[in-house]
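Hey, quick one: can you model this chain's 3D structure?
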Amino acid sequence: MTAFTSTATRMPLVVYVFALSAFALGFTEFVTIGLVSAIAADLKVDVSAIGAAVAAYAIGATIGAPILTALAAPLSRKHLLVAAMLVFTLGNALVGLSADLPSLLAARFGSGLGHGVFLAVASSAATRLVEPERAGSAVAVVFGGLTVALAFGVPIGTWLGGLWTWQAIFMAVAACGAIGLVGLLALMPDGRDGGRARDAIHNLTALLDHRLLGAALITVLAYTGSFCLFSYIAPLLIQVTGMDASWVGAMMLVYGVAAAIGNVAGGRMTDRLGPDRAVLIVLVGLTFILAAMGFAARSTPAMTVLVAALGALTYAAVPALQARVIGLAERRAPAALASAAGLNIAGFNAGIALGSLLGGGVVDAFGLTATAIVGAGAAGVGIAALIIQNGGERPRIRRPDSA
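Sure thing. Here's the predicted structure for all 403 residues.
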């Protein structure tokens, strides 16, 4: 497979196009959470039904990241990235035009397919556009756009929801996608980097490795626990905590700032302790914080602290979980690292989808506060799964001189 190379000393401009596109991907995934009440009122449906809009996008990304990326191995990266961004852009435009819940869910699912494929391919393509020693920096730029969106998408969306209609917000996301699409067409090298048809079969087979699937399962459980509650954080704060709706945006900003800090801290913790130990610490923390939210839901000061802690731990999990899957893939399926990375991206999104759907059922049956207890239970199951996968042994700290 021919690799793209660059002799320029600066980062190729197209890598920043990847970052802009990744920002749009992450923003649209989570902006719905801050707009739940507005969308529900406009479409005349229950709040729990709008949680399915978060799930629909995540399900699309779950399918797109590992499966479509593996099947598209024979295609060139440029063509695949352009197709993914086109699907994403059109999907968001259709969301903005949706007049009922079924059309909204269908459009969200379609745009999610584009999300999964784009992230899996862009992270791989970025490393081939620069010298090998700068591959890590290139990936950091791409995921920098995604991290900013994941951390601040909800607070920005909540704030914009007070200024614009939710339809206008999704149209703005579509406009960002269109800018990214034009940038890809103009700047992405059109190399002959497509693989062979049998590469698609090899990549799909690699996804069935039981250790990789087990690692992705822990990702699913962690994010199921977090998003069982967080998908309904706005109505929880308003209806249970008694917070004025105008302050929800500020709380989401607290979450976003803590998430950005947690993402950096999680990366450093993973480097220092190793991914197994870092994942265990995050899961224990999530279980404790979610359970505490169930008992402190009526206290504004306590919820402020706990929402910040939830944001920090949720995004501290990202580098730890990703490093764990990649480390396993290097040993189990070294020729299919991109597909393995896509499998973990699918795990994140599957957890978000499952958490949103599970939370909706919990809200209907037991009320908003119960999402905290159920979420803690899911994270607790993740702890058990990690211990089982490690053969019942405590995860060992990785020493600086170890591989």
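One thing worth noting: Residues 1-9, 393-403 have pLDDT under 50 and may be disordered.
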